Amino acid sequence: MLTLFYILSAITLGTAFLTIFSKNPIHSAIYLVLCFFSIAGHYLMFNAQFLAIVHIIVYSGAIMILMLFTIMLMNLNKEGEKSKNAWSQIAAVISFCLLALVLLATFIKAQQPEYNYATKGADFQSIKVLGQVLLNDYMVPFEFASVLLLVSMIGAVLLSKKEHINN
Amino acid sequence: MENILEQIGIDNYIYLSTLLFCVGAFGVLYRRNAIVMFMSIEIMLNAVNLLLVAFSTYHQDAAGQVFVFFSMAVAAAEVAVGLAILVAVYRNIKNIDIDNLKKLKG
Amino acid sequence: MDTNLALLLLLAPLAGFLLNIFIGKKLSGNVSGILGSVAVAVSFAVTLKFFLQVNGGGEPINVNLFKWMTLANFDVNFAFQLDQLSLLWLMFVTGIGTLIHIYSISYMHGDENIHKYFGYLNLFVFFMITLVMGSNLLIMFIGWEGVGLCSYLLIGFWYKNHDFNDAAKKAFIMNRIGDLGFLIGIFIIGYLFHSVDYIDIKNAITSGNLDIDMTWLGIATLCLFIGACGKSAQIPLYTWLPDAMAGPTPVSALIHAATMVTAGIFMITRLNFLFDLTPDVQNIIAIVGAFTSLIAASIGLAQNDIKKVLAYSTVSQLGLMFLALGLGAYHVAVFHVITHAFFKACLFLGSGSVIHAMHGEQDMRYMGGLRKVMGVTFITFLISTLAISGLPPFSGFFSKDEILMTAFHHNKVLWVVGSIASIMTAFYMFRLLYLTFYKDFRGTEEQKKHLHESPSLITFPLIVLAILALVGGAISLPGHSWLNEYLSPILTNHIEHHELGTTAYMLMGIAIIGALIGIGIAYFKYIKQGFVPGKDEEITGFSKVLYNKFYVDEIYTAIIVKPIYALGAFFKNVTEVAFSGFIFGLGRLANALSTQGKVIQNGSIGFYLLVFVLGICSIIAYIFLK
Amino acid sequence: MDVSFILIILLFGAVATYFVGDKWASKAALIFSTCAFAATLYVIYRYNMGEKVSYLQTWMSRPRIVIGLQADGMSLLMLLLTTALTPIIVLTSFGNLFPKSRSFYALILFMAFAMAGTFLAVDGLLYYIFWELSLIPIYFIALIWGSGEAERRKKDVVKFFIYTFAGSLFMLVAFIYLYTKTGSFLNLHLYNAKLTDTEQLWIFLGFFLAYAIKIPIIPFHTWQANVYQKAPAAGTMLLSGIMLKMALYSIIRWQLPIAPKAAHDYKYIFIALCVAGVIYGSILALKQTNLKKLLAYSSLAHVGLIAAGAYTLTIDGLRGAFVQMIAHGFVVVGLFYAAEIISRRYKTEEIAEMGGIRIQSAKFASMFMILVMASVALPGTFNFIGEFELLYSLAQANIWLAVLGGTTIILGAFYMLRMFQQVMLGDKGTKVFKDVTFGEGFTFVLIIAVLLFFGLYPRPITDFVTPSLQKVLVYINQIN
Fold this sequence. Notes:
The complex is a heterotetramer of chains A (167), B (106), C (626) and D (480).
Chain A: H1 2-21, H2 25-45, H3 49-74, H4 86-109, H5 127-137, H6 139-160
Helix pairs in contact in A: 1-2, 2-3
Chain B: H1 5-8, H2 10-30, H3 34-59, H4 63-93
Chain C: H1 2-23, H2 29-55, E1 61-70, E2 75-82, H3 84-107, H4 114-133, H5 137-155, H6 162-193, H7 198-206, H8 214-231, H9 240-243, H10 249-258, H11 263-270, H12 272-275, H13 279-300, H14 306-326, H15 330-357, H16 375-389, H17 395-410, H18 412-437, H19 445-450, H20 456-471, H21 482-487, H22 502-528, H23 541-547, H24 552-600, H25 605-624
Antiparallel strand pairs in C: 1-2
């Protein structure tokens, strides 16, 4: 299993980097889809099948398609982007290193987790259980999430509508 | 059912998520294309989601996974609105290079 | 009964003032005049009643109205006190006041604001009575400042002329300098004695067990003396009095000769028990008095304005009174105040009569020969001049001689100074007399045609005052002095009796000879030689210095007024700008900081993100990696 | 009926005045302010009968803020000053035809409300709210209805606003610090706060900055003359007659009892600063060519003396300060009104362009003369009582301070008489001065009557305020 984890992790990080370094946004998007799939693989390793499915549907299916459409809509599928100036790139690299250093240092410095992992034995992540938790304990946030989605849909429609300034 | 973490260890997931998050942040800083920056943000969100699921398993508690659902919902909403804004911006200045969006200065 | 009468005495002039101010405009000038005169005459009548009562051995009258102020150390009552000293003062204040009111009816006839004139004059009498009657220093201070206000109003009575207004303003401000001294004196006395009542202070002192800091007491009496200097026109605050002659002549007679300017002497006599405790201050008073007397007399030698001469003569006589006060001879000073009130009022009113006849001309160079036309005025004027020159048997002789005799016994230098001043007085007074009444008329033909003796309303007060100037000395004859006995309850120190021995007669002789020398020189110069002072620009040498009053006004302007204005200009142009600039500078600093801060807000999202990430890094590092 | 009722009348009056419309606004304002005055008299009567007229009501429990309106001698006296001057100030505006007059009169009443609240508040934060609230109406009054070129006026008024506002923030900081120490804003709790010497000094300075700007004490006075000149007469009267008294009152109510040790330790510095202001203001007044500016600087000198008296920490100084606050309030309103009448008729504020008024209106000249004499503290006027007590308290601190402070007697006479001469006296010029109307004369008579009556019989005021001053003085002298 550990081997699998390492392979998946390598894919995840690698495609993430490729997403960033690809000149062409389309390529970026494709690498990102790969990245999401690898994350879904992680979810499957956790035995969270439902989440993995949802993840693939939402991210790879919905979000990334949306992005690809946008890219195509804007006709950005070429490598025309000017790269940032050298100072900005250096600054980005430095802050990346710094952030990684700080976060890793924090986690390393933090108290080590216990390794005798509890196994309740009870099912906690099947669709049935998740559904119960979601609609019993988290009923109100769930409804709010739906409202949020509705609002964002309306907002997106309004924003992308063509404005007639000179009427 | 045996716990997957017994074989891999929670700390590996922590490091993975951290790195993934940093990569996302790096992407935001490194690129000027707004859409790629959005993708980087998605990477960061996913890093967090991954960690949430890992801890959900660690604690054997469904709440973490529920939270990931919400996070996904928010991400979807965010992308929808964000892309709409980008489209609007693109209509006005004909590109989405964030270095050109400097009107909001003091 | 006594309380009501005392209030009547006080409030009658106030009622006159209110009536004249509020309904006077509807009355004719004569009615206002009569109203004003009656108001003061009522006061005089009441005063006379009390005076006879107290002189016959009655108790002083005390009137306590209400508690006025409460301070941490002492209370101040609104209270009045009618004892020997205040009644004596009231006698001549209201007496001469009545005469001058009567005189004014004719003198001010036809002035458009005559009702206001009488109103102000009544108000003055009211404040003067308050000053004299008050039973503590603060009530006296009400009167003290009140008479200053009336003086201001009356000097500037003809307010269309800005020179007169300047004179009025100068009088008020000079007085205020003294008033500040007075106020500080009151503070110290209140603090030391826990009271400002005369009786309380006197009791505290006479009780014997006085436990106060003598240095502070000295400062207090010195401050009070500064107050007296302001009101009674002593060096260095005397310059307002000659300028005050801008007012109508009866005002000069009443306020600036007979009554208000003697307030300083009244105050010091009133507080004789305090001044007796501070001999150093007494010495200062004596020296200041003597030199004021000398300097004012010497300036008087060269003046050509008839009223100015009289004004400097007043300053000089006041100086003599202060000399007496400084020597501890309060009764002598009071004696001279009274005789001086008679003859100086008479002189001023006489000069008023002359000015009236001359249609406002005050310069002696354009007078002369008036003796023939103005017989009554001349005779009364002559009597008063003889009195002020100190010739027997006129009243001035007795009082002035007493002062000089006291000075001789204490300090020969002061005696010499006083004597020289007296000789000068005799000279310039006769110079005045000769220039005005003798020889031929030097004015215009137009003026000559209108020369006339003044009406009886003017001559009547002159005659009364001349008689008083003639016989006034009787109240304190050498050897037997009614005044000394009368005042003895007021004065704590025993009155010195100078033996009528050889020294006394010798001193009298010297005084008479001195006066005669002065008169002789005047006679020689102005009658024999027929000298008439030249035009202003012809005056040269030392007499020019004298004519210009030693340039004291100019010096004061240069060393006090100008620097204050310069300081004002400095404040206005430098410090105000600096303060204001500092505040604006703070504003500009904030502005500049925000301009600099704006650079950070450059609109670049990448930069914001970078700062954002770095910020998160530092926060995490701060929280977890301390 | 307690003191909150008066505040309600004023606030309701402000709203009602706004809604009755431009035509009736001035009358409505007069009626409501007079009602407030009558109510104040009734409250004082009840207070003298020993009945309870304070108002306490918890507003928030966390942080603990109380709507507390205190009624003791000090606050009731200042309340009386406010409600007595407000109708007079409304009366003085009758002759002016303002645009948008309903807003103008509503703002006057609102300002009276805020100032009355400041005088009454017992809770520090409430006090601070009222304190700042009073700044808003005067800002608009000066900005909208002021005189002179709009740009310059805006600059001066905004400067005034920011300046006083910034100063007050230091006071707020002091209050918040005190809250962290005591857990309360109530003044009695603050009086008893155990503070170290250093804390006391900083708190003292925080208060001082707020008050020194408002009073103003040099060198914080630079806003004053310009605003007094530019504001409409009613605004100037509100500012000089009542608003700066807020700061003087607050010195005695808040600053001194909260930080008594600092007050005792550094009192000579502050007295010296105030006395320097007296001389500085007097000398500057001599150089002014603008009538309103001259009065502004004379006001600077007088309030400097009041503040100096308060900082002497003696009963005489505190009482003198209160007496002089009342007296100065009336005198300065009268003088500014006179200046307003002159400038209304002559269309100028330059002294050099005036003159010859006495010959045309003797009545006006006499009333102006009385006000001038009151201003220079002639005995018999109310100002004399105040100035006497203040100078006496200075003499207790140090005789030289009294001498220096006393120069106001001389210099005051100097510049006031000089001004009087140039403005009123002299021969008739070309300009026509209409005689005062009945309304104008009536206003003057009201003011003069107050000044003369209390000048002769000040005890209703002094006896009323003394007991509460003694109570405060206990806290001031409580140095541990």
